[in-house]
Design a protein that fits this description.
43% of the residues lie in helices and 15% in strands. It is α+β, with helices and mostly antiparallel strands. The structure holds zinc ion. The site of zinc ion has 8 residues, from helix 1.
């Protein structure tokens, strides 16, 4: 069973291949999913299959960051941004509600 971790990528590194399927991935700065002992990121599709809870957490962080940027310049955030954050929070809550599998 693979172990995954989230790392913050400070700079947009060059394109990389998914550590699991080899699919090319574009450069993205910010939080990304990695194998715990690997240097290459894991693509969203593989992450969804193997670590759905962490993908939901990444989506929640991205939605919160997007809303935070908008709120910095407006008094009342747009309803669409609030709904996107609520949806991401719901997805995370749903994915983390599943029981964890422990190694025997
Ligand atoms: Zn992949």
């Amino acid at each position: 069973m693979e172990r995954f971790t989230i790392r913050i990528v400070a700079d947009e590194a060059g394109p990389a291949a998914c550590a699991l399927c080899g699919q090319a991935q574009g450069p993205v700065a910010g939080p990304r999913l990695f194998l715990a002992d690997g240097a290459d990121p894991v693509c969203r599709d593989c992450g969804q299959r193997h670590a759905a809870e962490l993908i939901a957490l990444l989506d929640l962080a991205k939605s919160a960051k997007r809303l935070g940027r908008v709120c910095r310049h407006t008094l009342i955030p747009p309803l669409g941004s609030l709904l996107a954050l609520a949806r991401a929070a719901e997805e995370y809550a749903h994915s983390s509600a599943k029981p964890l599998q422990h190694a025997a």
